[in-house]
Amino acid sequence: MPFLWRAVDELRRCREIAVCRRFVECRPFASRRAFQLVERTGYHCSIRLPHFWFLLILAINLTATLPCSAADEHPLSNFEIAIRPILAKYCYDCHGNGEKSGHVAFDELQSAASKPGVPGSPELWSKVLSNVRAGLMPAEGSPKLNPDELKTLERWIKFVALGIDPDNPDPGRVTIRRLNRNEYRRSIRELTDFPFKSDDELPPDDTGYGFDNNGDVLSISPLLMEKYMQAAEQIVAASVPSKPPVNADDRQAWKSYRRFFTKDEPPESADERRHYSREILERFAGRAFRRPVDDATVVRLQDLAESIYSQPGKRFEEGVALAMVAVLASPQFLFRVEQPEPQADGDKPTAFPLIDEYSLASRLSYFLWSTMPDDELLRLAERRELRMKLREQVLRMMKDERFGVFSRYFVGQWLQARDVEGTAIDHRAIAAREDEAARALLRKLHDFQRRNVDFKERQLVRNQLDRLNPPEFTRELREAMRLETEMAFSYVVDNDRSVLELIDADYTFVNDALAKHYGLPPVEGRAMRRVDLPANSPRGGVLTQGTMLVVTSNPTRTSPVKRGLFILDNLLGAPPPPPPANLPPLEASQDGHGGKELSMRELLAVHRSKPLCNSCHSRMDPLGMGLENFNAMGRWRDNDLDEPVDAAGELITGEHFSDIRELKKILVTGHRLEFYRTLTEKLLTFALGRGVTYLDTDTVDTIVEKLEQSGGRFSELLFGIIESVPFQKSRTVGKPNGR
To answer: Of 190, 388, 591, 645, which is most buried by a Cβ count within 10 Å?
Structure first.
């Protein structure tokens, strides 16, 4: 068969056949080279010419169905035949024939030594795939690939250039990672019922790929290890009783003795005490380590406890407590250590085994609850029934109150909702952009500050400003904004609605203060509740929520650049490259205009006129300008600096819109696949604790396909991730460059 494929390639190269979707047209004379190749299959000597063409046509038709994992035998693996014509047709204007846009020339790429016949690197082709799917390639105004060409390019990139085996995909590398502060606090509460204040006692966690549960950044230093030791001592001292209860009042008081000790009093004999300590510590350590504890570890804990309670004047509980300190300071508690499923005797070792069911229980619980598995998950893992009952358990976990933190932790980082409560906002400067009288007062205040005028006089001006525009951007209002975003996401999750409602919805969640701030019909009370939006309201979806509008603003004004970047990065998955170093601020574009204060649209137009800035800003600015009717505090406005706000624009992919309403419609129709893909990648990153790489491309595509077929239902996304290879398996061998 390999020679038959090469015969097909030879005939194509000589233009002796034309392959279409439904037929194959053969030239009357085939090349001698093609016949020689077919003869090497062993068939030519016994098959007449018509049979040869039958086999040839059969081989060509099989190219649409054979798995691309057989890359060496598949015509699609031949770059020159399958891919070069597509690149020449659509890409060489910018990336070939002497052109090197972005320092890439497809006609000059060299094959890597590890992948003969595949020019360029996997990273390059991964970017090509992303840009083609996002409509950024071919360039604006150029013809686009037809569906068949796009499918051919996608399959070649995934299964040949990236080397993904659809039958046995690489689950990727997951670094053994420690618990972050939230996971540590919640695990301690689950284990001991002690409300440890991790935010006060432990340093902040670093973030990787946008999330603070990323294994590559959750390192541990000697100083942090010392803090964990101190925390373990503090937690055990506060939660583990040092003696049995002596009366009814003691028994009633956070009932903690029975939480750790199963008897009212420890036994008297040394052998019975040792047996009892084993019972207690094996159970405690098993919960803490999230899997059964090996006998050697239990013996060491017994010995440690006995070394204390056997001393004169020391109690049994004190010895057990010290052993519990050792458990909480152990790497087996602080780190999420995963193990592969045990293999039966005689089975051939595999590079990508399933993780064992205890590891799966931890992946589930820390993904959905940000804490350790409960008794039911561990019980099913012990029986090796968890994987079999996976969907049933996920639905159970989603009904548990512990699932409430899922939206807060994921949305708080993906959409930066948790940052709204700390973002610097100058309400006076923002209000002054929309009110000439306030602007005059603000100029006066700045002049007083420059001349160091008496504080009392400056305060008088501030008071005048506050009377014109009361400072309503309070801590309570910021909290309501955060809750709006969390509750909108939870509503989609809990009711299994389309994730597209995160972009465009006819409802939102407000209380009295937030409804007033947004200019919505009034509601009563501080409690947040779902409200239907008025017809044709610009609100609805995360783009019009205060969290996004505030965290993407500057202290004194909006930032269309930050807002456009937010959409590209978090919703469309197509962020531009980082800005060049020493880039002047946007306000520098004011220079040279006779003192006239330029509008935001004019400032950006001047900035984009610089070739160095245009390529990125042409992608960001139209998206950000579509949100200009919302000021830096998230309020609606019609004017900025006494000029009407113009929120119209044209995306780099060619769509026109007049305001945020039309922009949202464009995103949920023409760009929904990009949103599905981006949301999948973000949630997969959060679930796995690692960044998504090109090895995950087919996994993401499979989930996106299910999302598209279901109309975007959240359950397809969640179960797609939990049942995916990266979530279910682990890698036992390394990959080049640590990928």
So the answer is: 645
Average pLDDT over residues 7-21: 42
Q: H-helix or E-strand containing 704?
A: helix 697-710
> Above 50 in pLDDT, residue 92?
yes
CA distance 411 to 399: 19
Quick: pLDDT tens for 395-434: 999 999 999 999 999 999 999 999 999 999 999 999 889 8
Length of the chain: 739
Task: State the CB neighbour count (10 A cutoff) for residue 639.
Answer: 13
Q: CA 472, CA 67: separation in Å to the nearest integer?
A: 61
Q: Is the pLDDT of residue 49 over 60?
A: no
Query: 205: which DSSP letter?
Result: P
Left if phi > 0, otherwise alpha if psi is -120 to 50, otherwise beta: which for 89? alpha
| Burial label, 644 (beta-carbon count in 10 A; 0-12, 13-18, 19+) | exposed
CA 129, 132, 134, 138 dihedral sign is: positive
Q: For 111, phi and psi rounded to 5 degrees?
A: -70, 140
Per-residue model confidence (pLDDT) at position 537? 97
CB 129 within 8 A of CB 697: yes
Q: Which amino acid is at 457?
A: E
Query: How much is the average pLDDT of 210-237?
Result: 95
Q: What is the pLDDT of residue 285?
A: 98
Give the number of C-alpha atoms closer than 13 A to the C-alpha of residue 426, restricted to the C-beta side.
13
What is the rounded average pLDDT for all residues in the chain? Answer: 87
Q: In angstroms, what CA-CA distances link 418 with 202, 415, 484, 685?
A: 19, 8, 11, 18
- What gap in Å lies between CA 658 and CA 650, rounded to an integer? 9
Element (H, E) at 603: helix 600-608
Residue entry with tokens 């801590």: 475
Q: Are the C-beta atoms of 682 and 499 separated by less than 8 Å?
A: no
SS (H, E, C) 715-726: HHHHHHHHCCHH
Q: Does the CA dihedral 382-388-390-391 come out positive or negative?
A: negative
Which residue in the block uniquely carries the two structure tokens 């939206």?
407
Q: Helix axis angle, 147-156 relative to 122-133, nearest 10°?
A: 160
Query: So what's the pLDDT on residue 491?
Result: 98
* Residue 530: strand, helix, or coil: strand
